[in-house]
Amino acid sequence: MAAYKIGIVGLGVMGHNLALNMERNGFSVAGYDLDPQKTKAFLDSTALGRNIIGVNSIKELVAVLEKPRRILLMVPAGSPVDSAIDLLKPALNQGDILIDGGNSFFMDTERRNISLEKEGFNFIGAGVSGGEEGALWGPAIMPGGQYEAWKEIADIFQKIAAKADDGQPCVTYIGPRGAGHYVKMVHNGIEYGDMQLIAEVYDVLHRGVGLTASEIAGHFYEWNQHELKSYLVEITADILTRIDAETGKPLVDLILDEAQQKGTGKWTSQNALDIGAPIPTINAAVESRILSGLKSQRVTASQKIHGPLSKLQGNTTRLIESARQSLYASKIISYAQGMSMLKLASDEYQYDLKLSEIAGIWRGGCIIRASLLNEIMTSYQKDPALANLLLDDGFRTEVEERQVEWRFMLQNAIGSGIPVLAISASLAYFDAYRSERLPANLTQAQRDYFGAHTYRRIDRDGVFHTDWNHV
Fold first, then answer.
1. Of 51, 348, 386, 412, which has the maximum CB count within 10 A?
2. How far apart are CA 53 and CA 265, in angstroms?
3. Residue tagged active-site, from 110, 191, 227, 405
């Protein structure tokens, strides 16, 4: 039997589509799923007539693969990944490569990589972004693990990945151990932030200004032709134009206001606290999804708790323009927080992340792809040690020039009782980051007062403690 280039374990939608993508790009694929019916259905449908085979056992999968064996796991994150690894290990040879293409927590990938390396195997944790369509036609891929293993799979990943406008494949070697899944986690955190910022602007324009879904769609379509050009703005315009066939109403108006989450945004927030990375925009997005889940409580509260009666004040044209400028400024802040978090994590976990390359592979295929990433990539190419995007002259100017309208929109939204958790968190981050002095001096004095935690002074060296109860 011919030797197949790569095996895929797990033929759900993502595994199925990645197999088709690989075959279309010239790679023979052997597929296996615990459910034989899923394998058969795949072979009898879209895989029919292609250089793809299905196998019925791990032993058969290993037997048909080219050495070193490359096996991509497309199974749910968590214990299913460990179970798949345990099934495969007895049939593998040293030097074979296992690749986890799911949304695994990066610390799980760290553990698996270290453990498997000790046993003589290679393990790649590859974050894959782009959803079902991306998997089929070109995702952004973030692989981390042994560099030698990356070289064995690089050709496959480079050919199946999305291509940026300059033709560069949206994949690069991220770093050792769990680096790939770490970067995918932060990507998803930025995604949470981006989606919440867009949702808040929609709310301001809909509830505050009184625009219909169709009217808002027109503005998003126009915004997507310029600086806000991005996948999420593009699909937002599309969503807002969709009419429900049964009722004739905008479909978005009929969707329950309860946003779910798979956990990657929450992981980003939790890890940011662990490493000391301030990401209030992303945190606000996570919290907003949690708040949305309190639907029954919110319904009760809406009947008992009353807010301001005033509507947004000001010229409608200016309010719409201020919303646009607020979205762009806040979007820069969200990316600045995510990239700064990656920089801190690179040192914390010794990943040696190349932020310019990461921004480069996010330009296509992934959910947060946006024209803004070209500028971010350039900024880190000019200064790889850049601590924060706000310290780049170009981005600093972009945000400074928009702060009047940014503040105007927020003042109106807050005055009208419209929640803007992520946009206001973005502005607060901007104001805190540019402040030479923050009120943390009082916080530290309080800590010293009740816990003798000591403090430092601005006028002399040393560590001090005051007996606050003694006059």
1. 412
2. 36
3. 191
The β-bridge partners of 143 are 126
Distances (CA, A) of 86 to 79, 92, 351, 375, 419: 11, 11, 27, 44, 48
User: Is 184 noted as a catalytic residue in this protein?
Assistant: yes
- Could you give the 3-state DSSP secondary structure of residue 280? helix
Q: Which residue has tokens 């790649």?
A: 124
Task: Determine contact, residues 135/157, Cβ cutoff 8 Å.
Answer: no
Give the distance between the most distant pair of CA atoms in the chain: 90
Q: DSSP string spanning 375-410?
A: HHHHHHHH-TT-S-GGGSHHHHHHHHTTHHHHHHHH
pTM here is 0.95
From the list 5, 38, 184, 354, the catalytic residue is 184
Give the model confidence (pLDDT) of 359-388 as tens digits: 999 999 999 999 999 999 999 999 999 999
Q: Is residue 108 within 8 Å of residue 84, measured between CB atoms? A: no
Q: Give yes or no for a contact between 339 and 376, defined as CB atoms under 8 angstroms apart.
A: yes
pLDDT (tens digit per residue) in 448-460: 999 999 999 999 9
Residue given tokens 């880190």 in the structure block: 380
- Verify whether residue 304 is a known catalytic residue: no
Which phi-psi region, left, alpha or beta, contains residue 151 (left: φ > 0; alpha: ψ -120 to 50)? alpha
Please determine, for residue 471, whether its predicted confidence score (pLDDT) is greater than 70. Answer: no
What is the side-by-side strand order in the sheet with 140-145? 52-54, 29-32, 6-9, 70-73, 97-100, 122-129, 140-145
